[in-house]
Amino acid sequence: MKKLLSILLVIITFTSCDPSKRYMKEGDKQYLLGNNDGASNYYYNALLVRPDKEEAKQGLKKTGNVVLQGKFGQFSKHVVSNENQQAVMQYIACKKYYDKCKSVGVELEWPSMYDPIYEDIKNEYISKKYDSGLELMKSNKYEMAEAAFSEIALIDSTYKDATVLRVKSIVEPLYQHGQKMMEIENYKDAYRDFNKIVSLDATYKNAVALRADALAKASVGLGVLPVQNQTRTQGFDVRLYQQIIATLVQAKNPFLKVVDRSSLESMLREQQLGMSGIVDPESAAKAGKLIGLKYVLMTAISDLVYEDTGLLGDSLVAYEAYTETLPPAIPNGIPQTVTRFKKVHYMDSHQKRRLYYRVFYQLVSTQTAQVVASEVLTEEVADEMHNCTYAGNVNSLYPELPAKNTMPAKPTEFREQFNQVKRQLVSKEEMTQKVCKVISQKMMEDINVYLGK
Q: Right CATH number for 120-218 from 1.10.3470, 3.60.21, 1.10.10, 1.25.40?
């Protein structure tokens, strides 16, 4: 009997000291208050004590899914804000939370739709961090470089053994990633990986050959047709065409192969074709496809206006202030002075030049014969000069008469007209160059999404 009582006492003591019940109670309380994060922590702790506690598993699954969804909400915000580092770290935090719950037997609902987004952001972030590490190595800043590679290792385990003391440990993960990118036909990222390897060790395995292969497969051929001039003014079409080619080349896009007029003519002759027959998107697509291009760029100048007024002179009205002394109001009094105004004319010599462009372009896909991008672009440049002269006292000159007893204002612009240093207006050539640059840059920004980089 005494032994039985001892056993019952031990059972009662053990039950009363079971912390899982307390954790469950607190978890339920926090759940009712809407604190899913706090509730999930209590349910998690209850499972650490009693891994078989079914109600704790149900509680953690219910609240944990809400918490995980909230964490991915923060990930989405970082993605939208282009905060790549924060997005990567937030995704890692989501994975840690998921694994934490899984370790106690609760598998949450993992939103797989975010995985490809994370992969893109992670690759971009690691690529920039890797470039930074290499630059630090080249500058002999080894401790900082080591820190950069250590951060990469926290994000991607393939870099776990990367160290500045062993170049191979840095290059090999890149080589493996480059091969993976080749397998999934992501040739641009593969090129970047192999290019970094070659810059660090040109003899490493077959990185040079793989880089060339990736570049060839990632490259986009763009044929740039001569600019069609639909105006009566000659010469501007050639200048615009030259600037379009220059802008495309200066972008230094390794994946873009620009084929200009002379190369196009040579390639078309080999196919027994002529450029004169390429007048619309359909014919451009057919010709481009035959010579191995992916896109063809067609451009036309629809409006072009150049104005130069020449040097003109206008006589304009102003008011000159002068002082007049009045006799004293009383005998032996003090004379009074007043300011009066007289109407005068001053000369305004002025000249204005203006250049206006209206350009239409079409980017044609040779695979589908569809216009994938088109826009009407306008740009204007103007320059104007005024030089005013007056034979009298300029400092006493006002553009208007006083209101009541208040002296009129003399605006800064009005005064500065008389102090202008004579200068030459921007030339027609300079205006053309500026307009062509702006239009070419706008065009490049529009079509860059198709050309890639």
A: 1.25.40
